[in-house]
Here is the input.
Amino acid sequence: LSLIQINIIHNCKCEEVSPSLYRLVTCNITEEGCAALASALRSNPSSHLRELNLNDNEPGDSGVKQFSALLDDPNCKLQKLQ
Here is the structure.
């Protein structure tokens, strides 16, 4: 996942703590944003991202299901989602 791929989120302070950890806290990420993020991660299996912090966003049921399915995918390297 690159910072360019995250540009779908407007007015968001994306903090890249390390290549394996991003914080997208309080970015008003909705179900649509979660679907886009999950899709970006799914289409980039070589991503080094292991942890993603989405605290204080509004993923809705659909966004939670998207990330749940992503975490269940054996090709996904994401290990921790907050």
Remarks:
- The chain has a mean pLDDT of 82.
- The longest helix spans residues 60-72.
- The chain has one domain: 5-81.
